[in-house]
Amino acid sequence: MTFEELEIIEPILKALDAEGYHTPTPIQEQSIPSLLLRKNLLGCAQTGTGKTAAFAIPILQHIYTNKNLKSGFRDVKALIVTPTRELAIQIQESFTKYGKYTGIKNTVIFGGVKQNAQTDALRRGVEVLVATPGRLLDLMDQGFISLKHVEYFVLDEADRMLDMGFIHDIRKILAKLPNKRQSLFFSATMPLDILQLSEKIVGGNPQRVTIQPEQTTAEKVKQAVYFVSKRNKPKLLTHLLKTEEYETCLVFSRTKHGADKIVKFLKGAQINSEAIHGNKSQGARQSALSNFKSGETKVLIATDIAARGIDVKELSLVINFDLPNIEETYVHRIGRTGRASASGIALSFCDTDEKPYLRGIQKLINQRIPVIENHPFIGDVEETPARKKPAQSNQRPKRKPRPGQEGERKGHGQGTRKNNNKRRRDSNRPNSTNRSRSRSR
Ligand code: AMP
User: Fold this and answer.
1) Does 402 have pLDDT greater than 50?
2) Distances in whole angstroms, Cα of residue 188 to Cα of each of 87, 182, 308, 411
3) Whole-prediction pTM value?
């Protein structure tokens, strides 16, 4: 299958060619034909599948073929709402890339920065608006945006939206949209509350597309786990960053504080890195991200929320300094490497307390992650292969995490699996709720 066969128009084909895209990804192949027929779409897919182009291409094609762009003022014809600023910026960049020969204008709005540049762009007129919910409503209230002419509405990463507490904002936005429109709804998971929300947006009979990148990604990525004590994790990370070969390395920390600590100790070891997380200003996050994309900073430390949507083509190494307490998050993390045709490496550190997480992850991905048994910092971790070896001189008795310690979760490591499951919420998620998330794929 080619993009020509999907009946993509010439100006977009030219842009795709310039990007080096020759074959549509599965989600593009499955979505584009029905989107061109103006059907609503319910997509169970996540970033990394080529999802953005799957909706951006047909939207651009419709706007291009239905409007004389040279005449009159540009109304917002397409609205894409996405939970994070990083994701919003990347979606806008995609519209710019794929639409560069169409003359269609776009802009992106998000909170945390002054609004002037955003309102200036809106005043000049755009057909495509990419937005995070809060700033969108804010600028709508101030009269800078009208959704009256919206014909295409995309709700992106719906599950994450709900986790971040955006449900009321979404309802308010929906109330302002024209009833006659094409709607697209994307979510990585489809628990009941998400399905109910989707029905309000795409109706009862949308085109359904389910793409499971997890397995394919997980298969492409070489994975390994190091059993290592909390205390030795910094040493192991320093060692790996000095000995592994990589173009760029993304290190995941479960907490914002932990991310800052990693930057500090790496600095002590003369390894330059930057952290990206929710406590950093928007400016600092953007500059860290662009330094990383340009290769100026080779090591980026991120929390899960901040890392969502980070799209770096050359990302070759992912290190899980902490294992995530939600199994799916592991798959999202390692999906940052090994994208498209590239293959990548994902290395995880697992201390004693994290072993239940490792078991959960292995169950989800349905494979055993190979253990690196031979590393210099194998120490006081119980049940590791090294423990079985005699004469481990640097073994220390197992310590319980102290209150306030990095990654500390109340009672963590001592509770039952059931109790641990109850707490499996990512501490980085603002307004996270305890919705149960049944995966219905
Ligand atoms: P997304 O899921 O939209 O974040 O896209 C994931 C990555 O795949 C991005 O780096 C895109 O630039 C890239 N991509 C999207 N479509 C294609 C394609 N048809 N061929 C090659 N790469 C693609």
Assistant:
1) no
2) 14, 20, 12, 30
3) 0.58
